[in-house]
Amino acid sequence: MGIAKALVADDSGSTGIEYGLLASFLAMTLLAGFQTLANQVDDSFTDLSEKYEDAQ
Questions:
Q1: Which pTM was predicted?
Q2: Number of H helices, E strands in the chain
């Protein structure tokens, strides 16, 4: 029973897990933001290309 209590009380790896979860959440958020930004830039260039073709 002493080993089980020692394992439950041991929290030395929990900080690493928390930092890993935080890093993965940050990475997913950044990827979603970059995808949105890429779509907006693509739309802007498409609109600009269409306006250029119409002007010729």
A1: 0.58
A2: 2, 0
